[in-house]
Amino acid sequence: MTLEQPPKTLRIYTIIWLGQTASLIGSNMTSFALLIWAWQRTGEATPLALLSFFMQVPIITASLFAGILVDRYSRKRIMMIGDIIAAICTLVILILFLTNQLAIWHLYLIGVFVGLFGYFQGLAFSTSQSLLVPKQHYIRVAAMGSMQTFGSGVLAPALAGVLYPIVGLRGILIIDLMTFSVAFATLARVQIPQPSAVGHAENPWQQLTFGFRYLIQRPSLMGLQLFAMSFIFFDSLSAVSTAMILARSNNNTSVLGSVEGAVGLGGLTGAVLLGLWGGPKRRIHGLLIGRAIVFSFEMLLGLMRLPSIWIGANFAAGLFKPLANSCEETIWISKVEPSVQGRVFAANWFLISIISSLGLLLAGLLADFVFEPVMKSGGLLAPILGNVFGTDRGSGMALQFALFSFIVVLICLGSYAFSPLRNIEKILPDHDVG
With helix as H, strand as E and coil as C, how does 275-299 read? Predict the structure, then answer.
């Protein structure tokens, strides 16, 4: 028996989005405040990096089976459980802090649960979009996701920075708990349809590999997957912008903050404009050209040395990021059936996380042992490229950043030569056609 599904409407999605946005702002405020607390307590950078590490590692393993659970069980319930677990973790931190027992290792352990259940919640939310929203609004929904990401990225640190000296970590944690209640209340009042079960009669191994087999059987989607993996790999190899800017600005943290804040402000602006516009008719053009424009501007961070140009280039790059991200997301949710999106999207994330982790691991090694040595005075490339990048500290990282950003631009433009990807919207029908 097939249950009658409620009509698709942007209103229900917007209600959920508002609650999740409030919760994300609260969570990001807490993360920012905890970084301040950890820095004040230890004065070391390693504990700060490990906080992100312990949130990330369990997700790689979870992505192998998360899609199965999201496709099989109530996505609304999974999202609500995610909010509950996150609230409990925040409450535990608050109790430990109030009793003067909070330690760095507590944050590592809690970070495992926050990262794990946050991933399940995010996957359930993303796979519910095509069940809640009419197809003509997919690009606006993706733009709303960009608004959420970039907006919270700008607003949360600003709010936490202002409030932390006034209310301290305790006050930030209490605000976070209040935002969780808003997210939970919005979820409780809406209905999220559950797709019919597809492929759940397979054996466990077949279910674990379902998403990968789904991609392999569709060359256009596999082309989109390979494109994402290739640009993310080279983007990860260029993940030295923070160190590069500090090195080339005499450790000026104000310059660093302005440059990093510019991309968030640009992204928020771009997301708002994209929501008003609706995006290009051919989403693949928005993805490939938009991504090429983003990395063309990012090249300027390595090629130029003026903070004003860095800020302007990062704002311009952020301005086009929602276009590329939203067009890519729209293609995925349009082409993949809602009943299997959990497994397919989890496979997508697993492959990307592996390649991203490899790039991040290599980025620092390349900077310290390859690019910086060859660009220092007397280095192998200093006589050739020294006039462009300089030969002082940070010049090698500038070359590394500009080079790999340029490679991404070539990948974006060169992808037009691959017909299955270029014509993905013609070759592969939308999931609701036929």
Answer: HHHCCCCCHHHHHHHHHHHHHHHHH
- Cα 365–370–372 angle (5° rounding)? 100
Span 29-71, pLDDT tens digits: 888 888 778 877 876 555 665 676 777 777 788 887 889 999 9
The C-alpha atoms of residue 434 and residue 373 are separated, in whole angstroms, by 59
Alpha carbon distance 232, 360 (integer Å): 10
CB 115 within 8 A of CB 58: yes
Strands annotated E in 288-387: none
Distance (Å, whole) CA 427 – CA 284: 12
Report DSSP letters for 377-388, one per residue: TT-SSHHHHHHH
Residue 251 three-state SS:
coil
Question: Whole-angstrom Cα distance, residue 323 to residue 352?
Answer: 20
Q: List, in order of start, the domains of the chain with CATH numbers.
A: 10-188 (1.20.1250.20), 207-427 (1.20.1250.20)
Q: How far apart are CA 173 and CA 186, in angstroms?
A: 20
Specify the DSSP class assigned to residue 195. P
Dihedral class, residue 361 (left if φ above 0, else alpha if ψ from -120 to 50, else beta):
alpha
Among candidate residues 193, 154, 145, the one with its CA nearest the CA of residue 329: 145
Handedness of CA 8, 334, 61, 179 (dihedral sign): negative
Q: Please write the tens of the pLDDT for every residue from 103-135.
A: 989 998 998 898 888 889 989 999 999 889 988
Would you give the end-to-end CA distance of the chain in angstroms? 21
- Is the entire prediction scored with pTM above 0.90? no
- Locate tokens 């991040």: which residue? 360
